[in-house]
Design goal:
By secondary structure, this protein is of the alpha/beta class. It contains 8 helices and 7 strands; from the N terminus they run E-H-E-H-E-H-E-H-E-H-E-H-H-H-E. The structure holds nicotinamide-adenine-dinucleotide. Nicotinamide-adenine-dinucleotide binds near residues 17, 37, 90, 139 and 188.
């Protein structure tokens, strides 16, 4: 896997899928810039990876705030001089139909999931253009393709990212390779938070969900990390403008 020496900025790199990606990329020899709004976890992860002799820096970042994104890009360039890959993975989840969302829900979901991506790309695409190359990987979701009950805003925010991946591949052809990864049901703090409010215990609920997935288990963050490393690597150099489903075959099930 050719990630050796690549400078990879990963957002949301301190929890769940992003944390597993930060660990995996660093283990494969990448120089990993871990960006998130979880400073304690970020510094602890940075220190742990550095203590193992790996290359990792944490930069506290709210991806929905342009000055934070500008700082992330400036600091990364100061430290490493380039950005080979962006893995835009930070995301927030909230429930609700179109009848229920508040201004706060809109700001949180659209602000992080959609605007956060636009801000990162606004400031990182010019760097990649100057370098002559770069790879952008965005964590979307099967929610972009399925109308999950009472998830209108979340699903729509992830569908926007699928369109964005195609736009990046056409607008920046020859320079940027743009790919998406669509997790299904991955065992992370976000998934566990989504179990609140059900009248059966969390583990029982997740066991029932796992039983319905064709591979008969929940996804683990490491499942995503291994696929993400491949998509970022030169081995995936002909994969562009599309997304990889990582849902254990859930979308292959018949709709009854
Ligand atoms: N867990 C799943 O089943 C699943 C399924 C499909 C898609 N996803 C997507 O995968 C991504 C990672 O989710 P996860 O399950 O690991 O969740 P998580 O809650 O464990 O991690 C989310 C990360 O995003 C960061 N983040 C949130 N808002 C931020 C902001 N404003 N600025 C910077 N960082 C911010 C958090 O600090 C955290 O590190 C998300 O985009 C999510 O939508 C998850």
């Amino acid at each position: 896997m050719a990630l050796d020496e690549k400078v990879i900025v990963i957002t949301g790199g301190t929890s769940g899928i992003g944390e597993a990606c930060s660990r995996h990329f660093a283990g494969l020899g990448a120089k990993v810039v871990i960006a998130s709004n979880q400073p304690e976890a970020g510094v602890a992860l940075q220190d742990e990876l550095q203590a193992k002799g790996q290359e990792a820096r944490f930069i506290e970042t709210d991806v929905a705030a342009e000055e934070d994104v500008e700082n992330l890009v400036a600091q990364t360039l100061d430290i490493y001089g380039r950005i080979d890959c962006l893995h835009s993975n930070a995301g927030v989840w909230r429930e609700g139909t179109v009848k229920e969302f508040s201004e706060d829900d809109w700001q949180a979901i659209v602000g992080v999931n959609v605007k956060g991506n636009f801000l990162l790309l606004k400031h990182i695409v010019p760097v990649m253009e100057q370098q002559g190359q770069g790879v952008v990987l965005i964590t979307t979701s099967v929610a972009a393709f399925v109308g999950f009950p009472a998830h209108a805003l979340y699903c729509a925010s992830k569908a926007a990212l699928e369109a964005l991946i195609r736009c990046l591949a056409t607008d920046h052809a020859g320079v940027i390779r743009a790919v998406g990864i669509c997790p299904g049901t991955i065992d992370t703090p976000m998934l566990r938070a989504s179990c609140e409010g059900w009248d059966i215990p969390e583990d029982e609920l997740l066991a029932q969900v796992a039983e319905k997935i064709p591979v008969r288990r929940l996804g683990q963050p490491e499942d995503i990390a291994k696929a993400a490393a491949f998509l970022l690597s030169d081995d995936a150099s002909y994969i562009n403008g599309t997304s990889l489903m990582l849902e254990g075959g859930t979308l292959a099930l018949p709709p009854w």
